[in-house]
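anyone seen this seq b4? input:
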Amino acid sequence: PGYCWPFQGSWSEVLIRLPTQITPTAITIQHTSKMASPLGTVSSAPRDFTVSVSLCWALGGLDEEGKQETLLGAFTYILQKGPNQTFPLQNEIPRGFRFLKLGIRSNWGKPGYTCIYRVQVHGKIVGRKAI
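predicted toks r here
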């Protein structure tokens, strides 16, 4: 507990670069458990979040306005379900990507910051050049 990716407030986005191209199928988000928390609270856990990809990201660049961005799902991290939660992506993409965007939209009530302990992306490797 305490060693997390903290960001100010309850809204943020991060672009995740994967070690190789994959066809994404699910994402796992981890936060500490209430029992392991020194303060006995997990209000800094993410609540609502989105996962998306962009064809421009797959080609190694970023489009300026995100017009080609594809939403793979909108999810809610439920505190009562435990610290590790896996979410199957809701929209299938028939190709591989090297970047995914995780968008945190709210947390469970902590006014100053939100913490994420681990993000895992699940999927099928495209080709054989995994790093």
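The CA atoms of residues 3 and 39 lie 14 Å apart. The beta strands are 5-8, 12-30, 48-54, 69-76, 84-88, 97-104, 113-116, 118-125. kinda curious what u guys think
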